[in-house]
């Protein structure tokens, strides 16, 4: 335990040093920026959208008794968590944040106006998806760090089925003058069992891989961030084989993506819990152009899971699990059934 605490303190010290533009070593100073993802667990407004299967539940008269007070409490909880991500290193917090399980653009507009994060001036990228549950993915970003130049939404279709799920959002832009591409995912769930539902996630991974390959055709050195709730762990076929990811830099072949969450998974760290087992469904996966020791442009430094105690259930059968909004159908005023994930990028400069 002492070694773990000492190691954590050392890492924090290193990150604080490299994030300080006044610090220099061999006449070099460093910038640090953070990019992340957060499943907001059913961020619905109180208005019934008849096209969505579960929207009726999230109304004052619905099953969830989803009142304006509860909705605004949920917004405040989500904004509080977002306000804390990466602030141990970067005073402005998370610069780019992919999100999932949001009902529409309106809930994101309400979220970014919360006083806890309003001064960051987050902007929104969002498209409506054909998901049968009525949830979408989206992207929040601080224009201070990121300028959007192009967006697109890729619909996921499985041949010979009527299955509908979330679109995959692609956002291209300039991160402090460097072009990056962000792909936000929320792959099909494990409803019906992991094995039975596996082909859906494999197909979703194939679509993501197609998007990645299309970006590589335009630029073989493209800086790509594939983020999301994949509903699979780093070792599952969808992530490992279909998306073509590896957890060790030395094993990477041309075109492979690097998954820094592979090591965290092996170390027993998860982003959600189910039946006393931790899973790491939430990940940030990157292209090889973000690796290496050349710090003249942004490079990957560290991957993290925000799993602070305030995000955990304090007591009962689910003590230690993510503290969610509802538990067993009972409103608990928690945060989400997922922890946020994020990573740090660093580069030389003032």
Describe the secondary-structure layout.
Layout: H1 2-18, E1 30-43, H2 68-84, E2 96-102, H3 105-112, E3 123-126, E4 136-141, E5 146-154, E6 168-175, E7 178-186, H4 194-218, E8 224-229, H5 237-242, E9 245-246, E10 257-258, H6 261-266, E11 272-274, E12 277-279, E13 282-286, E14 299-305, E15 326-327, E16 330-331, E17 341-348
Parallel strand pairs: 1-2, 7-8, 9-10
Antiparallel strand pairs: 1-17, 2-4, 3-4, 5-6, 6-7, 8-13, 11-12, 14-17, 15-16
Helix pairs in contact: 2-3
Structure description:
It is globular and about 55 Å long. The strands form 5 sheets. It has a 6-stranded mixed sheet with strand order 3-4-2-1-17-14, with helices on one face. It has a 5-stranded mixed sheet with strand order 5-6-7-8-13, with helices on one face. A two-stranded parallel ribbon has the order 9-10. α2 (about 70-85) packs across α3 (about 105-110). Residues about 1-5 and about 15-25 have low confidence and may be disordered. A hairpin with a 2-residue loop joins β15 (about 325) and β16. The protein has one domain (about 30-350): Endonuclease/exonuclease/phosphatase (Deoxyribonuclease I, Chain A), CATH 3.60.10. It contains 6 helices and 17 strands. By secondary structure, the chain is of the alpha+beta class.
């Amino acid at each position: 335990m002492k070694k773990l605490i000492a190691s954590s303190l050392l890492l924090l010290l290193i990150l604080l040093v490299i994030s300080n533009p006044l610090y220099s070593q061999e006449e070099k100073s460093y910038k640090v920026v953070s990019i992340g993802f957060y499943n907001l667990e059913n961020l619905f407004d109180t208005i019934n959208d008849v096209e969505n299967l579960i929207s009726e539940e999230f109304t004052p008269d619905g099953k969830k008794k989803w009142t304006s007070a509860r909705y605004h409490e949920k917004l405040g909880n989500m904004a509080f968590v977002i306000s804390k991500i990466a602030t141990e290193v970067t005073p402005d917090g998370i610069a780019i944040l992919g999100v999932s399980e949001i009902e529409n653009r309106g809930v994101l507009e309400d979220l970014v106006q919360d006083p806890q994060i309003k001064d960051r001036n987050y902007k929104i990228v969002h498209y409506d998806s054909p998901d049968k549950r009525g949830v979408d993915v989206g992207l929040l970003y601080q224009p201070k760090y990121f300028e959007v130049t192009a967006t697109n939404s890729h619909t996921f279709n499985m041949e010979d089925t009527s299955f509908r799920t979330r679109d995959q959002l692609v956002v291209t832009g300039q991160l402090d003058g460097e072009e990056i591409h962000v792909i936000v995912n929320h792959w099909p769930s494990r409803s019906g069992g992991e094995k039975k539902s596996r082909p859906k996630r494999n197909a979703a991974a194939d679509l993501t891989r197609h998007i990645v390959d299309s970006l590589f055709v335009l630029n073989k050195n493209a800086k790509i961030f594939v983020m999301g709730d994949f509903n699979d762990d780093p070792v599952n076929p969808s992530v490992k084989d279909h998306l073509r990811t590896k957890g060790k830099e030395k094993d990477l072949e041309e075109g492979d993506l690097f998954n820094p969450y592979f090591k965290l998974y092996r170390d027993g760290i998860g982003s959600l819990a189910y039946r006393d087992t931790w899973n790491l469904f939430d990940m940030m996966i990157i292209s090889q152009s973000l690796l290496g020791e050349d710090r003249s442009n942004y490079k990957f430094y560290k991957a993290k899971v925000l799993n602070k105690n305030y995000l955990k259930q304090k007591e009962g059968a689910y003590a230690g699990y993510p503290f969610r909004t509802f538990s067993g159908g009972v409103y608990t005023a928690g945060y989400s059934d997922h922890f946020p994930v994020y990573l740090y990028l660093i580069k030389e400069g003032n």
